[in-house]
Amino acid sequence: MAKYLCKNKTKCSNADDFIDFTPSGSGKPVCPVCGSDNLKMASGGVGPVNVGGDGSNDGQKFLLIALAFLAIIGVAGGAWYVWEKPDSTTGISTATTPTNPSIATPANPNPPVATNPPPTPPLQPPHQNIPPVPPELPAHPELFGVIEIGATGVKGVVVDLVKSETDPKCQVDEEVFSNCVIRKKLEPSNVNPIEAGAVEDAAKAAKVMQDEMTNRYAVDLSQIYLVGSSSVADVSHRDRLKQTIENALGKPGLMGFVTAGEEAGYAFQGVLHLVPKTYRDKRKSKAVVLDIGSGNTKGAYMEVMGEEKRLIDFAIPWGTKKFTKQVDNQRGDGSFKDASARLRQGLLLPEIREVVERKQGMAMHDRVYLLGGISWALANFIQPKNTQHFPRVFPEHIETLYNNAIRPNARRKLCDENPQRTEEIDRICQTFDVNNIIAGMDLLKTFSEEMKFKDKTVFFMRDSLYAWPLGYLKARCQAEGKC
């Protein structure tokens, strides 16, 4: 039976992986995975199949007509060859004119000169005369890609910024809308472009991601954006990094860089663009984005004064691993827990309190979105089975993980012998040690107290790796009138 390929790209695993199949039943062929009737023939090179609403197959009808026409030519040519076949010795056709046996045929006084008719070329099987149709994918104008070059590696994501805004089915809530927007998170590459020797590796990783976006997900090349994070914006080899990556991807002059303040603003916009447009404006005036990174903490919120709206960013020079190092340097012979608690009161609290008092929206806005690695650890250790894009976070969660991290044999109980161990928990345990978790919880506790988490609705954004790149992408495509 005929085999088919599904053409429902990015929405069907059969289509994405070019898996052919034989339809079941005698009705209209459809994909067994997604149910789409947008199919093409898997072999024979006869082009796409256009299945009509009544189950008819125009492509197969055309093929049958073509085969029948060629068969008629073959039969006619074969009959001529048999009828006019020349004698092997004289070269004269052995065919005779039908005659009436009662009438004598007079001899020809001028017999024709023996000549061989030109040989008839043998007919080729029909499929050898039809060039195969390449499996070309149409570009999807609703799809965009962004590739971020940062200190922790190269990351890429494919998003839908057009249909997600107009499809009523996507407007239910943040969970549904996020699934509509984020179409594919590409596997990150762990190269470190901060090191001058890793420039070529970073360019190769970015090229692999761009090729996957264009070849597998049919993203138009002009809708893939390159951006360097604030961590690589000031490296001494920045110009070489930029030129090498642009040359590898065929995008001369198109790689941008952002500052830490811009990252905070783009992260805010990225989070808001994962909220359905029906209540995005409402969220925008009430949300605070708080991104606790390894080296610092940054964030933003929207200040509304009458008709004027202004994005306010903030930053604290302490992140999870930087604070861990500070505690280690000052702990002396004491425990890490005690030293961290002491520095939380003497170092973190004054700095965070000063920023919250100046940036009053941090305390006044009632919706907080947590980003960053230590928030990722908190959400997964406390709710390992929760796969929501925006799981809720409560101050009690912070206290629970802190207590689990300071008990004896904490690493074994959190990681190795955790009865609810998952792949995410394995990755967290490879990223953070127990001291990082203690220091990170002290950071989160301080923000929780000063920003009054107990009176707010607090979420962790599971796709926080892509928050500011998504905000950057949205700003670029809007500026170019593409979304």
Topology:
Blueprint: E1 4-6, H1 13-16, E2 20-21, E3 39-41, H2 58-83, E4 143-150, E5 153-160, H3 163-166, H4 174-181, E6 182-185, H5 199-215, E7 224-228, H6 230-233, H7 238-249, E8 255-257, H8 260-272, H9 280-284, E9 287-292, E10 297-305, E11 308-316, H10 320-330, H11 336-358, H12 361-364, E12 367-371, H13 373-382, E13 392-393, H14 395-406, H15 410-416, H16 423-431, H17 434-451, E14 457-460, H18 467-479
Helix pairs in contact: 5-7, 8-18, 10-11, 10-17, 11-17, 13-14, 13-17, 14-17
Strand order of the largest sheet: 11-10-9-12-14-13
Shape: globular
Mean pLDDT: 82
**Count of strand segments:** 14
Task: Name the beta content range.
Answer: 5-15%
Rg for CA atoms: 35 Å
Give me the number of helical elements.
18
Low-confidence stretches: 43-64, 75-109, 120-135
- Report the span from N to C terminus: 44 Å
SSE class: alpha/beta
Helix proportion range: 40-55%
Largest sheet: 6 strands, mixed
Can you summarize this structure?
The protein has helices spanning 13-16, 58-83, 163-166, 174-181, 199-215, 230-233, 238-249, 260-272, 280-284, 320-330, 336-358, 361-364, 373-382, 395-406, 410-416, 423-431, 434-451, 467-479; strands at residues 4-6, 20-21, 39-41, 143-150, 153-160, 182-185, 224-228, 255-257, 287-292, 297-305, 308-316, 367-371, 392-393, 457-460.
Describe the protein's architecture and organization:
With 483 residues, the protein is α/β, with parallel strands linked by helices. 41% of the residues lie in helices and 15% in strands. The chain contains 18 helices and 14 strands. The strands form 3 sheets. A 6-stranded mixed beta sheet has the order 11-10-9-12-14-13, sandwiched between helices. A hairpin with a 2-residue loop joins strand 10 (297-305) and strand 11. The protein is globular and about 75 Å long. The two termini are 44 Å apart. The model is unreliable at 43-64, 75-109 and 120-135 (pLDDT under 50).
